[in-house]
UniProtKB/TrEMBL annotation:
CDD domains the record matches: ThiF_MoeB_HesA_family
Family the UniProt entry places it in: Belongs to the ubiquitin-activating E1 family. UBA5 subfamily.
Domain THIF-type NAD/FAD binding fold, residue spans: 99-349
Name of the protein described by the UniProt record: Ubiquitin-like modifier-activating enzyme 5
Amino acid sequence: MPFRVLHFLGVFYFICSFYDKQYFAPVRNIFFLSLNIHTHPYLSTFSSFNCWGCLCFDCCKEGDRSTEKAGRTEAIIEMDQEKGRRQVLDATVRDDNPYSRLMALQRMGVVENYEMIRQKSVAIIGAGGVGSVVAEMLTRCGIAKILLFDYDKVELANMNRLFYRPEQQGMSKVEAARQTLEGINPDTKVVPYSFNITSTEHWQSFVDALTKDGGAQPGMPVDLLLCCVDNFQARLTVNYACLQFDIPWMESGVSENAVSGHIQLLLPGVTPCYECCPPLVVATGMPEAKREGVCAASLPTTMGIVAGFLAQNTLKYLLNFGKVSEYIGYDALRDYFPSVTIKANPDCRNATCVERQRQYAEKRLTMGEAAHPLHAAARLLQKGGAKERKTAKARAAASAAEGGI
């Protein structure tokens, strides 16, 4: 709308303001609608105004008015045919962008830089009821690379889970998972490893995959390992590898009766290792991967909840936002979610764990709290909390002033 028309509407509005006539209301509405559109930081088709004088008299210099426009994100204006109104769509909020809802976390201040996810990789040990669901969640979140370890095959008994399909029966779990995940998001690279990590013949292949080929960039180690297995021996193998090569990892588990579960963060030297305290379920000494006559219960709801917590904490760890819990339990019968902090055992039977604790203690002497791997995330959380409290206080003061309190 030309400046002269806006000028005319502005003058006419002030004339109308002296008369309380019903037929002047549409004119006032048109004026305010025009003003909102032409001064809105995204809807405006030209530079925003510094003051009301700019609207009618162009009192400020063009260079001053264009400063804000030059610095803001370029917007794409489209017409919504159904609703008959203008929409503001930039590259991150278009409906044809699969990451638009994820990038909203950055625009809303939840995550400082969500695009970091494209530089991250995770290794998932176990592609069962929890591991496969976590892999799907992270794939949908746009992670750069996933390493999948499992030597089992898809069976019809797996169909009560949330991931595999009947036509995939007989396929190795990692190949079936790769097929599905690449169909969901071809941007995520899925690398399958169909071997038993607890066997000595595959130990070196397992280590090389984590330390040499695991990163999103060639030659870099994996950023985080997620252990989603159902046996004690595999957990000990993962614990040993992560201590030896200083790999952060998260462990998860679901009880045999399928009504409880947990996730745990394990940072070598910082938090307890898996051998620092007795395991939640004592091993029987029998092979746990396949036991004749034993059928553990399986609820997709419990596994989905545990997988959700695990994926959420993975994102918080990789993208440095929020609080990454060291241990979260889940009791489905009582809807109980205990969260506890466990200290590392200085007398741990694993000598590598004790050495990692000593190294971390030395770093704390020189670096203080900054030595903790999650220090940056804690600082951001504290800063965000202070900002929220300040905003809430300002809103309360404004409400009180408006109410005459």
